[in-house]
Amino acid sequence: MLYIIPTPIGNLEDITIRAIKILKKSNYIIIENYYRSKILFNKYKIFNKNIIVYNKYNEYKKNNYIYKKIIKYKICSLISNAGTPLISDPGYLIIKKCIKNNIKFNILPGANAFIPALISSGFPLHNFVFIGFLPIKNNKIKKIFKIKKTLIIYDTSKKIKKNFIKNKKYLLNKKIFIHKEISKKFEEKIYFKYKKKKKLNFLNKIKGELTILINNN
């Protein structure tokens, strides 16, 4: 049986009791990055587990290997560095293969970045779409900004200013909300309207992981 288990996106206490119990019982734990997951394992004394590192660099190569482990062992757990697996993280190929072969899997509810950001934004909640990280190609970006809904985008502090400048024509006069470092010590909420003459120097000071919402309704 495969369990898809959300992990904290900031505060390590944002994990369910059930998630910890399953991780402790797991025969194999499929992780994205050993050093990131080790922090969580040490806090909750999740030791002596068989670990498989599975990320964007090896997901195609390791997919069949992981699938065989899921079939063979009673409990296999999939986690990402932070948040819910598959949400802008690896795991899609595994789930697709399980569905194709009628292999049961369970998904635990838990932490993610975009729902807290959506609620905090003050933008319409009944009409939104999750984009994740913006594509590179301009034609795909153009299609995204034609969607008349609240847009939810992930970005990094290194790229945010560049992306805002690149997509200025789509963002002008739009209400924007940036939720920085959700559930962490330096969590911050930034609300603004992108005006034509608005300087973006304040974006240089933003650090950490970012969830950006655009009121495109």
What does the secondary structure layout of this molecule look like, with pairings?
Elements (H helix, E strand, L loop, with lengths): L1 E3 L12 H9 L2 E4 L2 H10 L6 E4 L5 H14 L3 E3 L13 H9 L4 E3 L6 H8 L6 E6 L4 H7 L5 E7 L3 H7 L1 H4 L3 E6 L7 E6 L15 E7 L2
Helix pairs in contact: 3-4
Task: Tell me about this structure.
The chain has 217 residues and is α/β, with parallel strands linked by helices. The protein folds into two domains: 2-107, Tetrapyrrole methylase, N-terminal domain (Cobalt-precorrin-4 Transmethylase, domain 1); 114-215, 2-Layer Sandwich (Methyltransferase, Cobalt-precorrin-4 Transmethylase, Domain 2). 31% of the residues lie in helices and 23% in strands. The chain contains eight helices and ten strands. It has helices at 17-25, 34-43, 59-72, 92-100, 114-121, 138-144, 160-166, 168-171; strands at 2-4, 28-31, 50-53, 76-78, 105-107, 128-133, 150-156, 175-180, 188-193, 209-215. The strands form two sheets. It has a five-stranded parallel β-sheet, with helices on one face. Strands 6-7-10-8-9 form a five-stranded mixed β-sheet, covered by helices on one side. Helix 2 (34-43) links the parallel strand 2 and strand 3.
